[in-house]
Design a protein that fits this description.
The structure holds two protein chains of two kinds. By secondary structure, chain A is mainly beta. Chain A is built from no helices and eleven strands. The termini of chain B are far apart. Classes of the chains: A mainly beta, B mainly beta.
Chain lengths: 112, 112
C-alpha cells in the first residue's frame, strides 16, 4: 500500500465549477502538506502548503487538512481553463528532512 | 534569475550506455534532489543532497550515482542505462527547513 493515495482522474469539469481534489495518507508522521500544480511538459510548482488541521485559503484555492482522518483536499472555486493541469499532493515528516512523498497526481481539465 | 536549470531536455540512449544529467541552481539552496516521474507512479526520489559534499539515497537509487562538489551543481549519472530507466527526470532544490521545492523543467530520457 502506498503511503499517499491520490485518484489519478482524469477529471473534467465545466468552467466556473468548484473542483475538489483529494489525497489520503497512511503515515501519521506526516506533519506538513502541500499541493503542487504541474502544467504539461513542465516541472511542478508549489501552489499551497499547510501544517495544521483546518482550512487555508489563497484566492480561489482552499487547502483543507483533516489529520484525524488522514485526508487532505484542495478546492478550486470559479475554475478557469488556465487551471487545467495535473495537481499533486505532497507530504513531509518535518522540515529539515526535505524528503517529500508525492501522490500520483490528478489530471484536471476545465472545459470552456 | 534562472532558477533550476536542467540539461539536456531530451536524450535517447541505447541499453548499456552511460550519461550524465546536469542540474544547476542559482538560488544558493542547500538542498538539491533528483526525482523521476513515471505514469501511475508519481514523483519518486532518487538521490538528494543537503549541502556540498553530502549526498544520500532516496526511494529508487539503484543504477544512479550523484555527487555534489559545489552548492550550485548536482549531476545525476546513469552508469549503464536500462529500458526501465526510461522516464522524465526532475531536479529540485530548496532552502533547508522551508520545504518549498523549486523544480527544473525536466529531462526526458528514453532508453532503447
Amino acid at each position: 500500500q502506498k503511503e499517499v493515495e491520490q485518484d489519478p482522474g482524469p477529471l473534467s469539469v465545466p468552467e466556473g465549477a468548484i473542483v475538489s481534489l483529494n489525497c489520503t495518507y497512511s503515515n501519521s508522521a506526516f506533519q506538513y502538506f502541500m499541493w503542487y500544480r504541474q502544467y504539461s511538459r513542465k516541472g511542478p510548482e508549489l501552489l499551497m502548503y499547510t501544517y495544521s488541521s483546518g482550512n487555508k485559503e489563497d484566492g480561489r484555492f482552499t487547502a483543507q487538512v483533516d489529520k484525524s482522518s488522514k485526508y487532505i483536499s484542495l478546492f478550486i472555486r470559479d475554475s478557469q481553463p488556465s487551471d487545467s493541469a495535473t495537481y499533486l499532493c505532497a507530504m513531509i515528516h518535518r522540515f529539515g528532512n526535505e524528503k517529500l512523498t508525492f501522490g500520483t497526481g490528478t489530471r484536471l481539465t476545465i472545459i470552456p | 534569475n534562472a532558477g533550476v536549470t536542467q540539461t539536456p531536455k531530451f536524450q535517447v540512449l541505447k541499453t548499456g550506455q552511460s550519461m550524465t544529467l546536469q542540474c544547476a541552481q542559482d538560488m544558493n539552496h542547500e538542498y538539491m534532489s533528483w526525482y523521476r516521474q513515471d505514469p501511475g507512479m508519481g514523483l519518486r526520489l532518487i538521490h538528494y543532497s543537503v549541502g556540498a559534499g553530502i549526498t544520500d539515497q532516496g526511494e529508487v537509487p539503484n543504477g544512479y550515482n550523484v555527487s555534489r562538489s559545489t552548492t550550485e551543481d548536482f549531476p545525476l549519472r546513469l552508469l549503464s542505462a536500462a529500458p526501465s530507466q526510461t522516464s522524465v527526470y526532475f531536479c529540485a532544490s530548496s532552502y533547508l527547513g522551508v520545504g518549498e521545492l523549486f523544480f527544473g523543467e525536466g529531462s526526458r530520457l528514453t532508453v532503447l
